[in-house]
Specification:
Layout (H helix, E strand, L loop, with lengths): L6 E10 L9 E6 L6 E2 L2 E3 L6 H13 L4 E6 L4 E4 L13 E11 L15 E7 L1 H7 L2 H16 L6
Parallel strand pairs: 1-7
Antiparallel strand pairs: 1-4, 2-3, 2-8, 5-7, 6-7
Helix pairs in contact: 2-3
Amino acid sequence: MRTEKLYRPNVAAVILSSKYPQKCEFFLAHRNDIKNIWQFPQGGIDANETPKEALYRELEEEIGCADIDIISEYPSWITYDFPKVNTARKYPFDGQKQKYFLVRLKDDEAIDLYSHATPEFEEYKFVTYDELMNMASYLKRQVYKKVIDYFIQEGYISQ
């Protein structure tokens, strides 16, 4: 019997609109497979792939656009457990360990949620920090706050 939790390596993108720094807006997308869940793009890191390589691949797959500038990277991995209702997932993992990147889109208009056969998101919005904290999935809010507050404190985001 396994006693240590198993976490899936994953990347997540905190995306600022191309209007930044004149206007501080965050990209938030509505998942198409789970009702009322708004989140940042994220996804697993494949074997022999660096977190940065996974970031670009995931952005291309999920929002159809990897035309970004990487501003910063959160200094450590953040773990979270899957909710109990997800125990029958297709993965053998207890949760995910995520590496967060702060990025700025070069062109907001390049986003295409339907660029791949099976889109993960059905719509997206650029929102303020307060709107983000109200709309984001309850499971992710605490982590989003921790990560964004770090980027603000370090001077990577000005509001």
